[in-house]
Amino acid sequence: LTAIPGASGTYRGGVVAYATDAKDSVLGVPADLLAEHGAVHPEVAGHMALGVRRLLGSDYGVAVTGVAGPDPQDGQPVGTVFVAVATPDGATRGRRFRFTGDRAGIRYRTVEGALLLLDTAVRGSTGGNARD
Prior knowledge:
By secondary structure, the chain is α+β, with helices and mostly antiparallel strands. It is 39% helix and 15% strand.
């Protein structure tokens, strides 16, 4: 995202909250939600996206949480990914993905899915042609 000169004019930054407790302490995901459902859950992704937006003071926040392998996590099989985008009006939209393949492939497709959801959200809020 930042390889293009001038990216700092639109890209505010990123947060890597990999550990479950960091999702709570850094991004504000409710601890009771994490305790009940674990870190791989659609509501967790939504709270993470809102937390990123709040922390960075950005118009949009994007978050992913999932299982890239090699083992299942929080009762979710390898390849389960939840992506969420927080929009300027404070709403969130999300999507669940079920990817197959190795860890690197799952991670790559997760990024593609997150960027597609962000594109859809941005185009939808600006009256462009949203696609999903």
